[in-house]
Amino acid sequence: MCGIFGFTGYHDRDRLNIIQSMSNLLTHRGPDNFGFWIGESVALGMNRLSIIDLYRGFQPIWNEDKTVVVILNGEIYNYKILTELLKEKGHLFYTTSDTEVLVHLYEEYGPLFVEKISGMFAYALFDLKKEKLFLGRDRIGIKPLYYYLDKTGDIAFASEAKALINTLGISKDINNEALKLFFALFYVPEPLTIWEKIKKLEPGYYLEWSNYDVRKICYWDLNNVIYSAINSEPKRKQIDAKSYKEELQYLFKSLIKEHLISDVPVATLLSSGIDSTLVTRFASEISPTITSFTISTEGEDDESSIAQETAKSFNIAHYIKPANMSILNKLPLLLWHLDEPFADSSMFPTYIISNVISQTHRVALSGDGGDEVFGGYNYYRMFPYLIRAEKIPIVIKSILGPVVKLLPDALISQIAKKLGIQGTASIDRSIRFIKSPSYWSLDGTFQFAKEWIPSNTRKLLFPYKYIEFKSIINNYFSRFLSISDYKEYYPIIYSALDLSLGLPGDMLTKVDRMSMANSLEIRVPFCDHRLIEWMFNLPLRFLSNALIGKRFLKEVFKDYIPQKVMEGKKRGFGIPLGQWLEKDKKIIANIILAKKSYIREYLNEKYILNEIKSNLIKDDIARYSVWASLIFEVWAKIFIEMKGAKPDYSLKEIAK
Fold this sequence. Notes:
The longest helix has 27 residues, at 490-516. This protein is of the alpha+beta class. The protein is globular. A six-stranded antiparallel beta sheet has the order 2-3-1-9-8-10. Strand 6 and strand 7 form a beta hairpin.
């Protein structure tokens, strides 16, 4: 694990100084070693967090005749098998690190060597003979890679955008499309960034730079996996459910074993949920001395007691760290690590638990990705009802329309919560969905998904800033909903949407930045592409049913999961945000409504003032309007006003 960075060109500047400046900004990603190479046309650098081959695996790493050089952020889980295959072909290795397989794979297979590797990774590989630079990212987007193309055709890249924006004099103009997407999604999705000139490399892609020209190539696409499954469905042999269970158990155990490969101790993040429980269960069987960690929060959603019972039943050491309100003061620091506006409040517990684990470990396994792969979110429960609603005649729906519009929002909200639907966006969507019978079908749900804009976002932004907002959302969602002709497979397509959009843009971004802020590597077995491909190659009608409420996962692993976990309600990995914001309401108002605040250019000031006056504990919509506005304003203070310097000030100090 490390931070990687580099560039082509910039011969009119001190290139060593640029590389060193980039390194200084990413020390947290790799505090153990700074390695670099500066060639005639390319400069490469990396900060290393030593995990495999501690004493020889320094980067950059070369092939035998020093014509191919590579730097890697992440882990290649199948590197041992690949190493043996490459040795049989005559390749010589001078380390036992996973990084070295990349240069030899490139010699054998060219740039499509990336198809041979399994893991979480971002890499830069330079071929000195061909004068070609390749930048690649893993299939799911576990590891980040930002890049910048200048007007001369040169390229610069880094694991975090701050290493580009703070060293190369790049314009800090804000991308308005990205800003609007932030207020809709609470993060900025790939390939956009909040900056006009910087992009994220999408998952499953690699870039090829040669002679001041850049090509972007997709080597893995989840839509293609699904299309292939649909096309092969008529020819596929039907295997009994018992065989599926045995296959999944074997595959999952194998993946956990690979994810535990390390020359330093490995821990797990354990909550009261099924996913982290499964990861911890199998990790403890393979490595009985493993330690698990849990965070405790205030209120009914605290997971620590169940997690402690689970760890005790697995006979492993377990530690609990409480989260308290003081962490809110670290918001400037967390946003600096995140680089862009990011409003998922679970960044706080992720940061806290990563900080605790990093004091004794360098590697931890988490259950992130389980909801996306196995259909764990609330809306998957809708599909059985939608199938029934599909049969309601259009005439009846037209009659029901005026009636349901009279239902109080509070009543629909209560019903939604009783059905297990939680969170501001989900409740808001439920209200608008119920009040629009035209959406009561499988086709309608897709149209609804493409038109999704939280109602608070519409009111929050000034009207002139809102023009084209809806079309931006529609166009973006349409990229991930291109298989909508197959309505019988809608749960599968929604899973693909989650895997392609929310997982890399929100969940994995949070996990990477908050863990690496503490020099900790978090590995995510549920996000292994081999597991995802296996799932999407099940008979599709079987899979469509299996994705509702994690039915299949629960059935397969019911003998491995404690009953309390199996029967427990779904909890988010969150904090009592409403209570914290309500308590610091005056400070937050001073920041958002300051005369020189950056958010004023975009904000409907009257609306946000009313939202701040609301009860931020009870009013979900108001809470997230205020929260998103606060996030953008603090981010702008850091990266625009303070020019991206690492904050040494608290949230309270900004308000002064």
